[in-house]
Amino acid sequence: xxxxxxxxxxxxxxxxxxxxxxxxIDVVAKGETxxxxxxxxxxxxxxxxxxxxxxEHFSTKGSNGMGLAxxxxxxxxxxxxxxxxxxxxxxxxxxxxxxxxxxxxxxDLGQTIAPLLSDTFDCKLRVVVDEKTYSFDTxxxxxxxxxISIQSPSIVVxxxxxxxxxxxxxxxxxx
Amino acid sequence: xxxxxDIMAIRDAMQSQIILRDNANxxxxxxxxxxxxxxxxxxxxxxxxxxxxxxxxxxxxKGVRITRTGCMGKCEDEPMVEVHVPGQPVVTYAHLDAQKxxxxxxxxxxxxxxxxxxxxxx
Lengths: 175, 122
Hints:
With 175 residues, chain A is an alpha+beta fold. Chain A contains 6 helices and 6 strands. The relative contact order of chain B is 0.17.
């Protein structure tokens, strides 16, 4: 994966598989470091699952179990680290930190959020670039859509544009 | 900072069409599902998803829904997409990219002809 935002999309798939109804994606760029935090209110993991979740090929869903392992490797390759907290029945929080000097670019968050716009769960995005913050929240948007699906292609395209323009405005275009 | 006002304008434009479509029959919707497991994402599924959405929007196609799902179980054939047209067998495409996604909208969804060269091998 050549952009960190692809890892965000990949980890979001884990949240969806855990039947989360709310996903929160925080991208915080301060000085030389970037942190990505993905929090969900899904099923959470048992202590045993939590202990193994970052191992390659560990999976509870019959997949190859590479997503979190790849994210962890990405963090560690650029001097950062990855931590996972989870409680059964409460949810999961994955945090990765990256040092700016040798990390991959964050990439296109608009294109990353597009597949995460869903009628069945909500997604919050918060991007912080030094002192400036941009927040996007599907719950608020849905309240204004008067029953039109947030997954309608016209809405999805408009949301992508909105997110990328606002990230550009707070200085996040080159993250 | 841009607000969601632009999206509200789109909503207003859509609302009359939505009523027409709902009355026509929601079951007539074409559904395109993009596999977005780790394998799919790594192979370019995000570009495929966005190309599909952009093309449907540009052509102002009504009654076409693009959604994501997890791994479809054939990681080596990603990016993969399923096309569900009501009353027709499900068509599965493999090894897609953004241009092939646009072709699928043009030739399959609009033109009604399956893109044989992109079909997933059984």
